[in-house]
Design goal:
- The complex is a heterodimer.
- By secondary structure, chain A is mainly beta.
- Chain A has strands at 4-6, 9-11, 17-22, 31-38, 44-50, 57-59, 67-72, 77-82, 91-101, 108-111, 115-119.
- In chain A, strands 2, 4, 5, 6, 9, 10 and 11 form a seven-stranded mixed β-sheet that branches. In chain A, strands 1-3-8-7 form a four-stranded antiparallel β-sheet, with no helix packed on it.
- In chain A, strand 7 and strand 8 (77-82) form a beta hairpin.
- The radius of gyration of chain A is 13 Å and the shape is globular.
- Helices cover 0% and strands 52% of the residues of chain B.
- By secondary structure, chain B is mainly β.
- The chains are: A mainly beta, B mainly beta.
- Chains A and B meet through strand 4, strand 5, strand 9 and strand 10 of A and strand 4, strand 5, strand 9 and strand 10 of B.
Chain lengths: 121, 108
């Protein structure tokens, strides 16, 4: 896998969870990354975007103020910190690489395998 | 927000058929459109970007066209692995935007 995800699981409403996405293939300093999710039986939903230099971050209205993207350059890791989780956040979360090198093109050419997040009491 | 509407929601076809999926934007999005293939249990796969550019490694049986508000994805000579769900997605210079609701291509 070029992007390997971890960190999914079952969590109660109101709790937090952090998803991780590691790559040994790409220099995460050169690429922007995104998170996209798919709720059960539903379509794809863009969640968050972070540019290569971290100067630009964007979040869907549904997660703004609750989710935060970050990265650890030394570990080649991209994170999605999810706080105040709600049942409607349940779904499979995918990290994805932006197609652009040192520029956000905003179409996604390399994807992780997905992490299942279930928010339930 | 710009809304993306795909049609049809479901499409029935046979192996070897040619099919076309349409994606309409509620406003002019120029050529800021990508197409993805999504199979159950698998990650989405980028097929097309900039409305009509074929991603490296994607079969030439896939083609796309359009600009402004109307876009199409055409798959010729359907193969068994093509029977799955396809999504369009609008993007702009800031970030990815809304996905269409998806079109499921099923075996007739």
């Amino acid at each position: 896998e070029q992007l390997l995800q971890s960190g999914g699981g079952v969590v109660q409403p109101g709790k937090s969870l952090r998803l991780s996405c590691v790559t040994s293939t790409y220099n995460i300093n050169l690429y922007g990354f995104h998170w996209v999710r798919q709720a059960p039986g539903r379509g794809l939903e863009w969640v968050a975007t972070r540019s290569d230099n971290g100067m630009n971050e964007y979040y869907a209205d549904s997660v703004k103020g609750r989710f935060t993207m970050s990265k650890d350059i030394f570990k080649s890791m991209i994170y999605l910190q999810m706080n105040s989780l709600r049942p409607e956040d349940t779904g499979v979360y995918y990290c994805a690489r932006d197609s652009g090198r040192q520029i956000l093109l905003n179409y996604l050419d390399v994807w992780g395998q997905g992490s299942l997040v279930t928010v339930s009491s | 927000d710009i809304q993306m509407t795909q049609s049809p929601s479901t499409l029935s076809a046979s192996v070897g058929d040619r099919v076309t999926i349409t994606c309409r934007a509620s406003q002019n999005i120029n050529r800021g459109l990508a197409w993805y293939q999504k199979s159950p249990g698998k990650a989405p796969k980028l097929l097309i970007y900039e409305a009509s550019d074929l991603e490296d490694g994607v079969s030439s049986r896939f083609s796309a066209s359009g600009s402004g508000t109307e876009f199409t994805l055409t798959i010729r000579s359907l193969q068994p692995d093509d029977f799955t769900t396809y999504y369009c997605q609008h993007y702009n210079e800031d970030r990815p935007q809304m996905f269409g609701q998806g079109t499921k291509v099923e075996i007739k």
